[in-house]
Write the structure tokens for this entry.
Amino acid sequence: MAALAVGLLAYILPEPMTVGPAWLPFVLIAALMIPTLAFHRAGNTRLNDIFGYSVLVLLTLVVASSLGLLILRLPSHADSPGALLRSAGALWAANVLVFASWYWRLDGGGPNQRVQRDEHHGAFLFPQMLMDKKLRHALHQEDWNPGFIDYLFLAFNTSTAFSPTDVPVLTHWAKIMMIVQSTISLTTLALIAARAVNIL
């Protein structure tokens, strides 16, 4: 759903801010999602991972290329304030979804490996990992493992606060990814949205 949402967000961008037709990212994402889901249902984790990473690479390229085109168009004043605000909002939301998907796919070996473990050990220290057994039992969190919503919350906070909030980061790769995500978010909000407001 997150991948298809990024495709829809790319579709609402103005045509000059996408590489190729606006519908192309959504179609490519949907085409890659079919084998990804099929291999997941078949229990083929290796091919599921390969196609899952392919989807994420495509999502990243879609967001990065649109952001680059948008920044290149700023000096020409070719876009209306409304188009800039719509584009900034779509790219900010797509950034959150893309990085949430990367964290979900990479953390703890990925979703296929996380479900096989009793306890989660990964790049992020979620609050549930610090609870004692009694508290986890009282909150019905005995079998807790991070799901996509946990990574979406992490990515949303990173794009909003430009830093971790309730989830400390433990590994180098995760810290680098959060730096990149915060930079993209800051660029989108501070540069493009502020420019559009100034024009207004």
Q: What stands out?
A: Residues 88 and 192 are 6 Å apart (CA to CA). The mean pLDDT is 85. The chain has eight helices and no strands. Helices lie at 2-11, 24-42, 45-73, 81-106, 111-114, 133-138, 148-161, 172-199.
